[in-house]
Amino acid sequence: MSPAPGRLWIKDPIAVFGEGAERGLVVEGRTIAELVPAGAEPAAPCSVFDASRHVVLPGLVNTHHHFYQTLTRAHPAAINKPLFPWLQALYPLWARLTPDDLRSAVRIALVELLMSGCTTAADHHYLYPAGLERAVDIEVEAAREVGLRMTVTRGSMNLSEKDGGLPPDAVVQDEDAILRDSERVLNLFHDPAPGADIRIGLAPCSPFTVTERLMRETAAMAERHDCALHTHLAETADETRFCEARYGCRPVDLLERNGWLVPRTWVAHGIHFDDGEVERLGRHGVGVCHCAASNMVLASGICRTVELEAAGAKVGLGVDGSASNDASNMMEALRQALMIGRLRYGADKVTHRDVIRWGTEGSARCLGRDDIGRIAPGLQADLALFTLDETRFAGAHDPIAALVLCNAHRADRVMVGGRWRVEDGQPVGLDLAKMIADQRQAAKRFA
């Protein structure tokens, strides 16, 4: 019999991060049709991709990023500073951002993520200087071009220096403009259906950059449109002090009194929670994105991942902005989460399988998705395939563990929705050299 149209057997990989797929899996259309256990064959004839050199993971899911920051990596104005001074140094530079700058930055961030094995990303774009009112549209266009799934969060800031907030006036918008544009992009782009390529989230930036009214109105809009809510929360002790001085409460209390302690919410960082707050977040099913690299660079602290997950919170991973991480690599994010987790909890309390799970299924749950993040029949065919041919893997015995412990950082093949988007380590159908040249040219304006 000839192969059935559209059926591809990813055959006999070295290892698969999933049960019952020892001989690989079958992709049909955009989804995983079946798993092939040891000693078995697919149920029907298939075309074959020989995966005998590959270790197969579910596509990695990045739940927090700031794509525009690829323009200000390792910037002298911000090196060696904690969060608040770091932001104050960079806000005036970011105020120069134009649509062309953003387009270049977003493409680079997306391709960098894709090449690391990431198939879904959430970007938190909160910066809206004059002329950048269509930032979400630019990100959606770039995501479709590169081929990643995205939750593009329509971020916002309306509390500037003159109001007692942190950002300068030039990068904030008024409340009504924010709400109008949030409604616009939800109506244009948000797709809540399973298998969606683009979803919209709503993401007031942080307690020190937005008003309580904006948080309440945003939560109500998210409920009407069935979309996710996102914000930075409890990243630094400075933030806690700001909330106590301005609002008379801690950051988690601020979420609760504005209608944000709900399962559609996921927060970035989540470092400075006390035991009671960990329990409350878990009880309400809130997600927390652990950004290990950024938290180490800015010396913000360590997310309480183990306690949060035990309490019932969803735990995912994110690379965070390319100016506080200086990379957009999800495999590096897994390794950093493993190392900092072991430092905090002990060598046997956070395993390589834990961080892979956080960076796939856990991250998907943070985004409100149950159609990605695992290798299982009926789920989207989002896959990352890694080889073990480099010197860094020489002598490695456990292939799944080796990807994390031996510091894999680049996938050989990446599939999104049944389509190869990376082949032989290179993005398919994209002029990567031109993208890099365009981004370098744009970055000169931020020197």
From TrEMBL:
Domain Amidohydrolase-related: 55-420
Enzyme class: hydrolase
Transferase as UniProt keyword: no
Cited Gene3D superfamilies: Metal-dependent hydrolases, Urease, subunit C, domain 1
A GO molecular-function descriptor: 8-oxoguanine deaminase activity
Keywords: Hydrolase, Metal-binding, Zinc
Entry-linked CDD domains: ATZ_TRZ_like (cd01298)
PANTHER family xrefs: AMIDOHYDROLASE-RELATED DOMAIN-CONTAINING PROTEIN (PTHR43794:SF11), AMINOHYDROLASE SSNA-RELATED (PTHR43794)
Recorded family membership: Belongs to the metallo-dependent hydrolases superfamily. ATZ/TRZ family.
Name this protein carries in UniProt: 8-oxoguanine deaminase
Organism of provenance: Lichenibacterium minor
Lineage: Bacteria, Pseudomonadati, Pseudomonadota, Alphaproteobacteria, Hyphomicrobiales
